[in-house]
């Protein structure tokens, strides 16, 4: 997209924001990982539309759940209104960092030109959110530039500089890669430019896909990036799921052998080598690992393993990187025991979770995928009954218990539970109402007069101010809340 004037840009972004406001709270949940440490589960889909009917609506009649999956805020101002520049990128840390003026929270800031407006618009449209995806919090527009504030970690390590010698460690890392790419495919998105450099470790073991730019802004690959492209690329250059799967295979090959399966350094010879795909697999890794590589690096894209089949391979099962049954049981019981939320608590709690360290959310994502038996991005009452019977108990009361859970958690009453609904009841709320978490969350939301207002929430969730004004007036008898009001509302959730 070419450059345009500031006025044209504002009109363009206003139109995109208007489009985003129309987008309802659709699921942004990654596909389910069906394999577990103690074996695989395979259940058929059941018809659930006659399970039960409810007229309850978040304890507040007349209000519907809107934009609950929105967390990326667009502001038409300089980021210096909210943050101070902390450190510019250098050879030791290749990112510019900023510090929030109220909370001291440190984040990474990335800058883009107006010619990148398509990228900004797509970020706002898709509102991508996954624990293995770099989390973005705010977009600032000023003086022909966009600035995106992202999550930060003091231990960011680009994956291509890390060497693994243990297959279990590789399985743990690669499982996260597959999950996040599977999530993107679930959103009808393909990356097409996956390499080792697209991923980074945040801390000791948690992986993030931090190259979102090329998810939306396609380019001609460099010679180094061509090493990760599939044979069919040279025929049609199509951005397909199969292309991403092949790239994951080359990345896995690198993790095992610390090199590319292709040796050519010139474009013409590399093309011929990839098209031939006579890949050698040294026996320095297990037979199961070689078997998985062969299935992913299948020359024929139609025969190549599907993304949701990769982590079902016996190699993953042997590495034992999945959830324990006890972890799933504890989360299901938490669904049962969690107090029902009113609509204001829903939005406030979701804001806290959105700003919580994403690594803390990983286990909850994994549990959700285990409950989503048919891998369609949500789970039904029958899927909940099946999982409850397997992990908690199978008794005469199981069905009624699950119906009560479902009636509480299915907040928009569409007979399915999405991750955005699930996480509000699956998270241990005691962690979310700790003093430091409440204090930081309030400072992030409050205005200059130290109030959380209807306007604060409307900006956060891209909704009309009147929506939150009506809710706050009904619940609080005023259209703002003090720190004590906020703290009391959150304490009432446990």
CATH superfamily of the domain at 325-491: EF-hand
State the shape.
Answer: globular
- The third-level CATH topology of the domain at 325-491 is Recoverin, domain 1
The rounded distance between the terminal residues' Cα atoms is 49 Å
Q: What CATH architecture of the domain at 325-491 do you see?
A: Orthogonal Bundle
Helix content range: 40-55%
Considering the chains and any ligands shown, give keywords for the structure.
Transferase(Phosphotransferase), domain 1, six-stranded mixed beta sheet, disordered N terminus, serine/threonine-protein kinase, 494 residues, calcium ion binding, three-stranded antiparallel beta sheet, nucleotide-binding, Recoverin, domain 1, 22 helices, alpha+beta
Task: Produce a short descriptive summary.
With 494 residues, this protein is of the alpha+beta class.
What topology does this entry show?
Blueprint: H1 6-22, E1 35-36, E2 39-40, E3 73-75, E4 83-87, E5 96-100, E6 106-113, H2 117-126, E7 136-142, E8 145-150, E9 156-158, H3 167-186, E10 199-202, E11 206-209, H4 213-216, H5 223-226, H6 233-236, H7 241-257, H8 267-276, H9 287-296, H10 307-310, H11 314-319, H12 325-337, H13 343-354, H14 362-371, H15 381-391, H16 398-409, H17 419-426, H18 429-432, H19 435-445, E12 452-453, H20 454-461, H21 465-476, E13 480-481, H22 483-491
Parallel strand pairs: 3-7
Antiparallel strand pairs: 1-2, 4-5, 5-6, 6-8, 7-8, 9-10, 10-11, 12-13
Helix pairs in contact: 1-2, 3-7, 15-16, 20-21
InterPro entries: CDPK_Ser/Thr_kinases, EF_Hand_1_Ca_BS, EF_hand_dom, Prot_kinase_dom
Organism: Paramecium sonneborni
Protein name: Calcium-dependent protein kinase
């Amino acid at each position: 997209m070419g450059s345009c004037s500031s006025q044209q840009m504002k009109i363009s972004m206003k139109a995109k924001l208007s489009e985003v406001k129309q987008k309802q709270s659709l699921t942004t949940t990654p596909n389910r990982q069906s394999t577990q440490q103690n074996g695989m589960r395979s259940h058929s889909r059941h018809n659930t539309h006659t399970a039960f009917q409810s007229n309850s609506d978040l304890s507040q009649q007349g209000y519907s759940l809107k934009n609950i999956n929105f967390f990326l805020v667009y502001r038409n101002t300089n980021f210096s209104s909210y943050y101070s520049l902390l450190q510019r990128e250098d050879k030791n840390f290749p990112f510019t960092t900023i510090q929030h003026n109220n909370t001291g929270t440190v984040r990474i800031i990335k800058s883009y030109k107006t010619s990148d407006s398509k990228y900004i618009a797509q970020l706002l449209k898709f509102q991508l959110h996954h624990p293995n995806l770099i989390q973005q919090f705010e977009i600032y527009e000023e003086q022909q530039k966009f600035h995106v504030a992202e999550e930060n970690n003091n231990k960011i390590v680009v994956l291509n500089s890390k060497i693994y010698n243990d297959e279990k460690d590789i399985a743990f890392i690669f499982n996260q890669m597959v999950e996040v790419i599977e999530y993107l495919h679930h959103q009808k998105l393909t990356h097409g430019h996956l390499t080792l450099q697209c991923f980074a470790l945040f801390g000791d073991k948690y992986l993030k896909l931090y190259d979102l730019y090329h998810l939306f802004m396609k380019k001609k690959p460099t010679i180094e990036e061509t090493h990760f492209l599939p044979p069919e690329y040279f025929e049609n250059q199509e951005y397909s799921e199969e292309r991403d799967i092949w790239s994951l295979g080359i990345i896995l090959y690198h993790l095992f052998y610390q090199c590319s399966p292709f040796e050519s350094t010139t474009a013409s010879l590399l093309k011929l080598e990839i098209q031939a795909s006579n890949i050698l697999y040294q026996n320095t890794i297990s037979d199961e690992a070689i078997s998985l590589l062969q299935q992913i690096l299948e020359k024929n894209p139609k025969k190549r393993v599907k993304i949701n089949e990769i982590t079902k391979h016996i190699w993953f099962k042997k590495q034992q990187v999945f959830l324990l049954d006890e972890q799933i049981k504890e989360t299901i019981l938490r669904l049962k025991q969690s107090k029902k939320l009113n609509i204001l608590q829903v939005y406030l709690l979701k804001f806290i979770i959105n700003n919580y360290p994403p690594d803390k959310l990983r286990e909850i994502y994994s549990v959700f995928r285990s409950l989503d038996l048919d891998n369609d991005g949500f789970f039904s009452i029958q899927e909940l009954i099946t999982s409850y019977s397997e992990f908690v108990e199978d008794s005469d009361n199981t069905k009624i218990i699950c119906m009560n859970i479902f009636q509480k958690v299915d907040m928009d009453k569409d007979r399915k539970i999405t991750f955005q609904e699930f996480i509000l009841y699956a998270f241990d709320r005691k962690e979310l109402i700790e003093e430091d978490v409440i204090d930081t969350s309030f400072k992030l939301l409050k205005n200059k007069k130290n109030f959380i207002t209807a306007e604060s929430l409307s900006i956060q969730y891209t909704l009309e101010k009147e929506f939150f004004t009506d809710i706050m007036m009904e619940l609080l008898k005023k259209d703002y809340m003090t720190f004590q009001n906020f703290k009391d509302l959150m304490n009432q959730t446990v």
